[in-house]
Amino acid sequence: MGIATAGRTAILNDMLRGLARQARQPDKVFVCPASEQDFDMTQAATLPYPIERVRGLRGSCAQRNAIIDVSKGFDVLVFFDDDFFASRDFLAEVERCFLTQPTTVAASGRVIADGIKGPGLDVAAAHAALASHESLRSGAGSVEQYNAYGCNMAVRLAAVHALNLRFDENLPLYGWLEDVDFCRRLACRGRIIKNEHMIGVHLGHKGGRSTGLRLGYSQIANPIYLWRKGTFRLDLALRQMGMNLAANFGKVLRPEPWIDRRGRVRGNVLALIDLMRGRLDPRRVLYLS
User: Fold this and answer.
1) How far is it, in rounded angstroms, from Cα 98 to Cα 286?
2) Least confident residue range of 91-95, 130-134, 195-199
3) Number of folded domains in the chain?
4) Range of 265's domain?
5) What is the pLDDT of residue 264?
6) Between the CA atoms of 79, 209, 164 and 99, what dihedral angle is there, to the nearest 10 degrees?
7) Surface-to-core class of residue 49, CB atoms within 10 Å of its CB (0-12 exposed, 13-18 middle, 19+ buried)
8) Looking at the keywords, is Transferase present (predicted)?
9) Is 207 within the bounds of a domain?
């Protein structure tokens, strides 16, 4: 299992303790923090599974790549966001899924509550949601999807290493849409699925994320970059940008307390200007503040 983390030490600690409840324990957990302060290895001694700190450059793509680099020898690598809480049988279901479906190369589960769509959830809410769903195994099982959801994404490492595949570090910092790009490049090796029996909760915690300005720029720059690269269909890229523009401009006068709509609008405008000038580049977010 791999976890890239930044600025969420307390939530990460809760999540790691939660993994101890898994019916099928992880063989090893690799944690790649953005800085030394983001992860305290002293708690590893209290956990029932082996854990290793991995060093990598700051940014979700670079940190996940550092984890891939040290994961050779394992069959499946499960990426969790540092604020993703899984049902007790999540990893057991991942193992069953990849053993019984040899053509599957990537899978994500059913997110029963996602705080990214609102102000965010706390840990207590995550545990309550999981308690109400863990006894249920509803849904059709596995269905194909365009890409796995990056907050809980399992990948078959034989396929990843056969392609020498890595997350695109031209999508820096938060790495908006990096899961789409990674999965579409991996899709040539097999199926990308959603497994309804892999259940979890994504807190959508607002700490540790990019500023509104940077995210707003990425909302335009990243879809266009991926379309030009050939890993994001044009209709999906246009729809993604259209939804973001409509939400940001439509709510800028009365923004939600937890979203910097003004910053996102500024980022959207800067990206559109750069697009017209022919200098749009996802890496420009590194120089925005």
Assistant:
1) 38
2) 130-134
3) 2
4) 212-287
5) 97
6) 10
7) middle
8) yes
9) no
In the block, tokens 């590893």 appear at: 44
Nearest CA among 280, 270, 279, 261 for reference residue 211:
261
Residue pair 16/47 in contact by the 8 Å Cβ criterion = yes
Q: 202 - beta bridge partners?
A: 84, 114
The pLDDT of residue 139 is above 60: no
Q: What is the DSSP letter of 42?
A: G
pLDDT at residue 42, as a whole number: 84
The token pair that represents 171 in the structure block: 């999508």
Secondary structure letter of residue 195 according to DSSP: E
Asked which of 39-43, 98-102, 126-130 is least confident by mean pLDDT, the reply is 39-43
Same domain? For 56 and 165 the reply is: yes
Domain contains 175: yes
Inter-residue contact 130 to 14 (CB < 8 Å): no
Tell which of 170, 202, 234 closes a domain: 202
Determine how many CB atoms are found less than 10 A away from the CB of residue 32: 27
Burial class (CB in 10 A: 0-12, 13-18, 19+), 221: buried
Residue 180 backbone dihedrals phi, psi, to 5 degrees: -65, -50
Q: What is the CATH number of the domain that holds 148?
A: 3.90.550.10
Tell me if 11 sits within 8 A of 82, measured CB to CB: yes
- pTM higher than 0.90 for the full model? yes
Backbone angles phi, psi at 241, to 5 degrees: -65, -40
More confident residue, 208 or 182: 182
Q: What is the DSSP letter of 220?
A: H
39 with 53: CB under 8 angstroms?
A: yes
Q: What is the identity of the amino acid at 244?
A: N
Among residues 138, 168, 202, which one ends one of the domains?
A: 202
pLDDT attached to residue 208: 61
